[in-house]
């Protein structure tokens, strides 16, 4: 299960049935849950960034794809899934079943809830606080420096069920309310009210999210998306969502 | 020609004079045409995404640069050229002489014509249909979900000779007409007429493409670009283009 | 110090105490200064792009992180620092203590001064001329083709102390004056006056940079940033800056 070309520290703690791909490296300060698969050409538990003293903890049944780099000093719940070429720095505290798409760049010192999904090529700045069931689409940046460069960092807060469409940025210190949708190619400089849609640069109020219709010929509301989109979520969670709207 | 550190499945079908670089992996379901060069640290024919039953086919005289990942279940004509750190998922059907720049992220289930060029860091969403001689510049995203997240996917269509400038997105279901130019930093929400220029967010009509002048001191029209730009195209094709404008 | 799995050409010139990580490749035409650390899975001195006849020169005490690719034919002063998954093409001439963040894509044939910092995921087009103490934030592109695709390349010029915020593009041939700030999510089509702030798409004048206040409760000017931000610069330089504002 550990490819003979992989370099795995004897001090790393690997659960049962962990697979490590060819040309991958697993450092000492690493705890990997059972059933987890690490692809080829990865570097896991990169010790740099001085005495964190904290290990990298990857939950059970996770899947880290090839060419990814995880530093020591972060924790991920069970069922983490990543694309390729992902970089995750120290101080990332994530819940269960996080998905990080290809080319994701998680700068560390941030918190992420359960069942959150990052599509390809997102950049999560330090001090971001991201809730549960959040969706972030490609080329989105969560910033943190209000007057770059400076020593002041104001992280972004994304509440549960937020969706941020492609190529948008959230400016430092902004809070995006529960269930809000950020339209594509937007720059968000002010807090966003729960269950609303904002878009543009700077982003402005567009409508209540529930007024957007699904393009399925049935005029169902497209938001809250948990009303109709259930792929990959646990049965119990979906049941709860369905009850909410019945 | 196959570096001793490379891991090549005995079931992979390699043409004559194929080169495989150090620390690269070639899986079983892979057919690589003669004269093709694979750089270092690549993973070619990645089997994941379940029984595609279809192999990865790379045409002759291709060049895949280092740290690139290609899944099984895609087909590329002869003369494919890529940059580094490229990811290509299953279901990509591409013609001859496709170029994919560094950090390109091709999400699969898409079709791409002949002699099309992607510059660095483009993201091609599933269900995109891309013609011949198309140019896509850095940080362009072809999207597909009209109300993310949802189960509805409306791919983008780019007709022949389209050029999309840097950091633009094309929204789901949009068709960009033959020879159209999308200005930089645009968000395109409506179909674009052949041989026109649109720009802005949302993108609006700017002018007929032929009215843009080349900055060469001669006031030649900059578009259609095939009038003056011929680098890397076959002689026979260029001859045809020159005849069109003589 | 050279990992046994690394492949280092006997023709490469390595200074004292150079470290080369696992699965990395160092080609013949490479000169690496003493004390430099190369991470895992790198390719250094990539010979392609025909007889440059010029080597890759990396100054002393540099640190190139994993999965990075540097071509032959470029020169870097001492103290180069990179993130992961960086690509640097031939013809890049950089001063001392350049920082290139994760996923940086330096297209080569460009010049970069001393103590300049690129955050993650920047794209530096050919013929860019970048001064000293410049800051470029994530997803910024310096373009060069005024009517893509064409054979005409007009590089961007960034003077000393310029800062370009996240997800902005600078259009071909534009000069950004000393100490100017480009706001986030901007598209800059005209030259920018020294010590001013521009923003938007297309970018317009916002204010004199010195009128922006630091969010530190003290109403200090946020710009010029060298007044208050000193992290990572040599003591002598900071002393000079402090004298300038005392």
Secondary structure layout plus pairing:
The structure is a homotrimer of 246-residue chains.
Chain A: E1 7-8, E2 13-14, E3 19-20, E4 25-26, E5 30-32, E6 37-38, E7 43-46, E8 56-58, E9 63-64, E10 69-71, E11 75-76, E12 81-82, E13 87-88, E14 92-94, E15 99-100, E16 105-106, E17 110-112, E18 117-118, E19 123-124, E20 129-130, E21 135-136, E22 141-142, E23 157-158, E24 163-164, E25 169-170, E26 175-176, E27 181-182, E28 187-188, E29 196-200, E30 203-208, H1 235-244
Parallel strand pairs in A: 1-4, 2-5, 3-6, 4-7, 5-8, 6-9, 7-10, 8-11, 10-13, 11-14, 12-15, 13-16, 14-17, 15-18, 16-19, 17-20, 18-21, 19-22, 20-23, 21-24, 22-25, 23-26, 24-27, 25-28, 27-29
Antiparallel strand pairs in A: 29-30
What does this structure look like?
- Chains A, B, C: Keywords: Amino-acid biosynthesis, Diaminopimelate biosynthesis, Lysine biosynthesis, Repeat, Transferase.
- Three copies of one chain form a homotrimer.
- The first copy, chain A, has 246 residues and is mainly beta.
- The first copy, chain A, folds into two domains: 1-102, Hexapeptide repeat proteins (UDP N-Acetylglucosamine Acyltransferase, domain 1), CATH 2.160.10; 109-209, 3 Solenoid (UDP N-Acetylglucosamine Acyltransferase, domain 1), CATH 2.160.10.
- Helices cover 4% and strands 30% of the residues of chain A.
- The first copy, chain A, is built from one helix and 30 strands.
- Chain A has one helix at residues 235-244, and strands at residues 7-8, 13-14, 19-20, 25-26, 30-32, 37-38, 43-46, 56-58, 63-64, 69-71, 75-76, 81-82, 87-88, 92-94, 99-100, 105-106, 110-112, 117-118, 123-124, 129-130, 135-136, 141-142, 157-158, 163-164, 169-170, 175-176, 181-182, 187-188, 196-200, 203-208.
- Chain A has a ten-stranded parallel beta sheet, with no helix packed on it. The first copy, chain A, has a nine-stranded parallel beta sheet with strand order 2-5-8-11-14-17-20-23-26, with no helix packed on it. In chain A, strands 12-15-18-21-24-27-29-30 form an eight-stranded mixed beta sheet, with no helix packed on it.
- Chain A is globular.
